Records
---
Amino acid sequence: MANRLFATLIAGTCLATLPMAAQAQTDFTISVNTGENHIRNITLQQFLSDLSEATNGELVGELFDNGQLYSGRDVPRAVARGDVDMAVPVTVYLSPFVPDLSVLDLALFAGVPAEQFNQIVDGPLGQDLSQQIAETLDVAVPGHWMLLGSAHTFGADQPIASYDDIAGQRIRIPGGAAILSHYQTLDADPVVISFGDVPVALSQGTIDGILTTNETIRSAQLWEAGVSSGFLDNVQTLYYVPIVNRGFWASLTDDQRTTFTDLWNQAIATERAEAIRRQEEAQAINAENGIAFTTPTPDEVSTAQAALQATVDDVAAEMGISDGTLTLAREVSAQ
């Protein structure tokens, strides 16, 4: 009896001294349609490295870039279905599911610099929009939005240095009723064409200008296609929104979800500062290549805003923006 008891105690002691089994590794996939040198890809790679280290290898993500898995337009549905675990699509690819996202393109926010816009998307309006995304697509939005940058009006043969100069110009836009209305209100002729066709369209005079960011002008070297001026009117500020498959998110422990969100928000704080720095650097490079920049005066902005603001209700109705979201947007823009 004593021998059996001793043997039992020894066995228990041995089991107690054995190392605990490590938490099983959870692999997940992220799909983006940009290349390895894009700020979105760079940020995601650093986030994945930090997440793996912080969880001792429990959470290991793999980034598939350049649209290897899904196009930007198709990726929201893919995440919702669980075909891919995570994506960070630009808001334009989410607005077909959540029309209220288009409120950010209304004239209410024209002229708002990126630093101030970050506070808007982190505040009550952005939180409400994130909740709508989560509920409509049945996904999780694990943290803050990633900044791409502010889009301005660039001119080619005829320099654009004021709101008056925009009148009569054929401006390429990415789409959207709010942006269309913006330029129509300024008596311009907005057109939607593929970005791949922009250099030829500029060179041949098919379009007179383009709404885009300084970084896009630099990366595409659009001064070679004739872009000669940049009017820093902050027509639109572009963001990417993190979305995570609901089933994958639910499979994580509370601690893992907390770590994921904390590290994501830390990564976004760094990314936003870098995005602004990159846009400033790109503007300097564009200027070196002959693009002349003009910033509208406060009086010019006020005059243009008076005309643009008068269109808000009609455009919001056309885009299907809810009354509640529009009211909240007005409150935020007035602060």
---
Amino acid sequence: MTVDPVDGDRPDARHDVRLVASDLDGTLLGPDGAVSRRTAAALADAEAAGLDVVFLTARPHRWLAELAAHVAGHGVAICANGASVVDVAGLRVLEEHGMDRRRVTEVAERLRAAWGADAVHLAAESADGFASEHGFVSEHVVPPGSATAARIEDVLPVTTLKLLLRAPGRAQDADTFVADAQAVLGDLAHVTSSAAGALGEIAAPGVTKAATLAAWAAARGIAPAQVWAVGDAPNDLPMLGWAGRAFAVANAHPAVRAAAHDTLPSNADDGVAVLLERAAALSRARTAGVVARLQSAPPAGGRHRARP
């Protein structure tokens, strides 16, 4: 069942929203991967109302070009599950929170030792692009000229933002696949998934959407309690746990719906637009209340006297 994001019209503690953090695929974007007219209008209105809206995604930065028109005035998105902060207009990586070659090599060695050298297929996303092993099958178009080799160690960038893992011989249920890989890697790396299939997304320890969002918000004086976050997949769970109020779209993974305070309409029904419209209305109501209080306050150093 879907519900109104926040009941009631009078701003209170839970209405004090300054930042809306949204996942993209399966959440803000429709099933066709596009921004709907209603969502585009809601994004523009949220910015006009003084809200910050930040996109957080598992996508690499090169996949964001078509979203540049919808990014707020701050101009950034958090990509690769928190491993990079990106200037969307220029598709430039501003911050990296990745793994060095030594750590990626150890990750690869552990996985091969546990599951078999022929069973593990890896690819690396970096600020410079994409590299993969010959056996890695991508569901997406691989950029022309991308490096490839028998072992990922031979084509690693200096910093890997996200290591992608496929192992066709393992369980293909996403939750089981991620749990099995995390058990192999322990505290060497963090494993999550943003898709329904068996694709592991491996990052440095502690690197999540939540961690990077928390730093971004803190730099702007925004507290967790002032953040509304919305997502659909397990890689969104740390972010939903950190934010003051957590939302899931109706099509979300069961664990995401269970972790959320409220459930929105699905991404096919503009669930994030519903959330943004509500947040913008509350932001305007809060601003109007502040102005009213300032107008009724006595002048500095003086006393307020009621009219006769």
---
Amino acid sequence: MVIMFSVFAFAACAGEDDRLSAPDNLRVQAEILLWDRVDGASAYKIFADGKMMATTEACYYDLSELSLTEEEECVLNVRAIPEDKEKAPSALSRPFAYTPSKEGEDATNSAGEFGTEERPYVISTKEDLENIFIWGADKCYVLGNDLELGEWTPLGAYSQPHGDRSRIPGLAEPFSGLLIGDGHTISYTINISDTDADKDYGWGLFGISEGATFRYLKIEATIQGAQPANSSSSVAGGLTGWAKNCRFDCCETSGTIRQDHNGSANYGCIRSGGLVGMAEGCAFYRCTNRADVLAGGFFASAGGIVGGQKDCDFDSCVNHGEISSNHGSWLFGGDNHGDLYGRT
């Protein structure tokens, strides 16, 4: 028996109204990077190829400080820092490609589109990660360093009205790009609370992913809590709650993923997985789970790699975490848990 589970409402980044506008109109004159002043900004951070190089109060930066060769290309971004501490820093500016021997140009319009595997966006901060759905959910991203996110709301879609099976992935806001961890770790915490009993949920770094690829990524996740009585479904995974037609290469999870249910034996379809809560048509290659995974409630299943799966391939995957599940008096009875996946 296969449970078709989809999650949809878009999770907007918190505090967008309190965030400064991103610096605009980047240009170079005589090795000086210039940009337009941002209202409310007291300083600006300059990034070169994803690494923070300097902080300045002026609206310019001397590019000779980068010590580039004549033919060496560098992708530049600028972030505005607010004078009002209650406001959030801006998103990164549009990328600007600069080579000393040539005139600089907006990297999104230069030869070779930015956001490709050859020229990925570099994720260096929590704010960068939250901007994925602004820059493009189908683009290529690479982590520039470890990220500690603290309390986290899943990116993209992560909830839908209870019992609504009419909408399919693709009409939602899934992540569909390429995320390369480059061996770095993303750590975060989700405390499942104050959920709506009339909705189904997906929990993870992303709520839902479709057609996405994840490579060399490490996740340290703490997802814990209980769904309210009469809530139909909840899926949770360290990387994504729900995945369809995705590929996971050399990804690793650690931490704790623990979902329970406060309802009766007639409610509470729970899927908990180390990487993915519920996966369909996905491929997993050399993935490792070190997280402890639990699913409790009616029709619950847990797995080291995925909580539930349909038509997935697993190659050289391994689980080192403690996996357990339990549920109420369901028709078939018994627990549904396993090293790689909980239920097919």
